[in-house]
Amino acid sequence: MSTLFAFLHHVAAFVVFGTLFAELVLLGGDLTLHSARRIQIFDMIFGIAAGVVLVIGFLRVFYFEKGAAYYFHSVPFIAKMTLFVIVGLLSIYPTIVFLSWRNPLKQGQLPALEPAMRRRVRMIIHAELTGIVLILLAAALMARGIGYFA
At CB < 8 A and 24+ separation, what contacts does 135-139 make? Predict the structure, then answer.
């Protein structure tokens, strides 16, 4: 079971990264009805995958790996969780922007995306991707037992 949950955790994490990267790429080009709808879909998948990462991650911590006592005494684990929360908080703004596109898209109209807002959303997605890379670093440190304190 531990291996299955590790596999699902990693697949969900790759989906999180992939959907964010896809949003960034789509926001780098001309916004069309098709690309705006795809961004909304990717953002929804991002949210679901992030939830899966969190749930499976906690299941692994409490039931399938070294136990909560170990992880809660690991600096990289605490850093990883902190970064996960930061990435989650950063994701709120782009999600609100993408949700605001619902009505125009339903009416077949292109949503308004001012250049300043596009830059801001892309900058936030860049920050989220950077946070995920740092999470991967923390995971590697954690897996090696670096930063464990008793």
Answer: 135/80, 135/83, 135/84, 135/87, 138/76, 138/77, 138/79, 138/80, 138/83, 139/76, 139/80
Do 62 and 25 touch, CB atoms closer than 8 A? no
Confidence of residue 148 (pLDDT cuts 50, 70, 90): confident
pLDDT of residue 11: 98
Distances in Å between the Cα of 27 and the Cα atoms of 6, 17, 54, 63, 129 are: 32, 15, 27, 40, 14
The enclosing H or E element of 87 equals helix 75-90
Distance from the Cα of residue 77 to its chain's centroid: 17
| pTM (two decimals) | 0.92
